[in-house]
Amino acid sequence: MGASDAEHRFDDWNIHTTAYKGVGEHGIEADVIIPKDIKPGSHPLIVRFHGGGLITGTSLYAEWFAPYILSFAAAQTAIIVSPNYRLLPEAKGSDILDDVSDLWVWVQQCLPSFIASRSAVPITVDFEHVLVSGESAGGHLAILSALMLLEGFINAVLAQYPMTERRSGIPAAKKTGMLLGMPVPDEDFVDKHVAGIQPGVVVSSAAPPARLDLMFAMSVYGKSHEYLGDDPRFYPMEAIEKATHFPSMWLLHGRDDEILPVESSVAFVEKVREMFPNNNVKLTVEDGNHGFDGEKSVEKDSWLKEGVEWIVKEWLKD
Q1: Where are the coiled-coil regions (predicted)?
Q2: Where along the chain do its domains lie?
């Protein structure tokens, strides 16, 4: 994914930023992304969570915002909400769950009036057609959103190589000292970072490469779990055990993923199908590493074209 491409990723969109909640004096922001050529009327909604291992990342980091998602959103003149959320290790898993929950309250209660106050044309949110998406950690939060909300509110989930179960580290990277072609810091890198955290500090946004080294170290040495906690609500493979509903889902994963093994996604899809045999669930496994879909296009990749057509149909069906 070229830097020049990323620089122009949002050229056809108007972006409006607001804080959807506050933690002390720190506002946690969401970006509301609206097509510049939008026409008056009601428009479907996409809520997209960014990735970054719950440790780095930010809502508008273009390198991780897959172009094909913006393309199909534009084709449907959809409104996109891309939120930030508190990050580990300054936050805990329970804080992130709170942020996801509060984000959805804001979407339902405040988004319509926020859009009305910002848009030059009269538009409304079509809450009958809601898609939640995310890559990596964002896919994890997209799945948790589907489990968290009332049945029928979310029509479909697009989960790109999500974390679905507890992780104890990445043994191969621990052995080689390399991950995604980049060096992994020593284990004490995490301890030094944690020791330097000021009491009460809130981190809810970090544009890579900021904190990538921290994300690598926490992931490889299994440190993330210490801050996520043991609440089964945070782990999709466990949370779904108590689920009474689940929407349509397209889950895609790279066969050669170094960070999150594809077997975890296969197992999660099997679990969803076992619990909800009447649900529409699509699993796509293709060659590639973590983030493999970033440079793919529906024009060149038939599997992506098929998947996009499938998820759009599930999202917009009555």
Answers
A1: none
A2: 3-166+230-316
Nearest to 84 by CA among 40, 1, 26: 26
> Quick check: 16 and 31 in contact, CB under 8 A?
yes
Query: What is the fold, at CATH topology level, of the domain defined by 3-166+230-316?
Result: Rossmann fold (3.40.50)
Q: What is the pLDDT of residues 130-188, one digit of tens each?
A: 999 999 999 999 999 999 998 899 999 999 999 999 888 999 999 999 999 999 999 99
Q: Which tokens go with 41?
A: 């009327």
Give per-residue pLDDT as tens, 87-123. 999 999 999 999 999 999 999 999 999 999 999 899 9
Joined together, the tokens standing for residue 308 give 């996009």
Give the long-range contacts of residues 102-109, CB within 8 A, separation 24 or more: 102/20, 102/21, 103/20, 103/21, 103/30, 103/47, 104/47, 104/145, 104/148, 104/149, 106/20, 106/21, 106/30, 107/45, 107/47, 107/81
CA distance linking residue 258 with residue 283, whole number of Å: 19
- Range list of β-strands (E), the chain: 13-23, 26-35, 41-49, 79-83, 123-135, 156-160, 178-179, 182-183, 248-254, 281-286
User: For residues 87, 11, 309 and 138, what is the CA-based torsion angle, rounded to 10 degrees?
Assistant: 0
φ, ψ for residue 110 (rounded to 5)?
-120, -25
Q: Note the pLDDT of residue 5.
A: 80
CB-based contact 95:24 (threshold 8 Å):
no
Tokens of 203: 């981190």
DSSP state of 235: S
